[in-house]
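Margin note: ligand = calcium ion.
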Amino acid sequence: MNKPVILVVEDDVPVRNLMRTTLKTHDYKYLTAPTGKEAVMLASSHNPDVVFLDLGLPDMDGVEVIRQIRSWSNMPIIVISARSEDEDKITALDAGADDYLVKPFSVDELLARLRVTIRRLSIMNTRSSTDSSVYTNGILKIDYAAGCASLNGEEIKLTPIEFKLLCLLAQNTGKVLTHTFITQHIWGRSWDNDIASLRVFMVTLRKKLESYPDAPEFIQTHVGIGYRMLKVE
Ligand code: CA
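Resulting structure:
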């Protein structure tokens, strides 16, 4: 992959400068937009690799920017929000954002999120060029076609729902999936009951998957928001 191009959408000048300096120092290429309208324009004209998007923009809601970009592109979008309420993050994730960062954030955190996202991009690129029916992540292997998963070559005995859940997380490795997104994909609906059942299924899935369910290596919990499959080194 060539040097990734990052689009920074932020109306707050000091924050924008901080991000610009950080990206420059770490040898990323970048573009900046102070408004939603410019963001959508630059996203379509320059096709950046990753977008950092502030949710509170002067001309439109960041969620609207996500919807517009998603109408033609799957480029990773990392939401940056001063709003710490889970509701905003969930709305942004359900609109198609990949990840989120809460202001004030540290430069290290910003760079870490960026690395995770770029790694995910390269996984997506390799996947499309190779056999896509087998998923490998560390010692975890999923054979989608055969409908089975294994750890270190040893089959994991999963119920159909656990398997479906594992596949959904695996197919979205690196991306935060909200409770609503997951339950809609697994049960075709999202009631409070389903979200409660999801928690129960996650507990049993983790027991089978993780060596230390209390310090999970594969599936990360985002309290009040959802879950994410991590790429294991
Ligand atoms: Ca703002």
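The first helix runs from residue 13 to 25.
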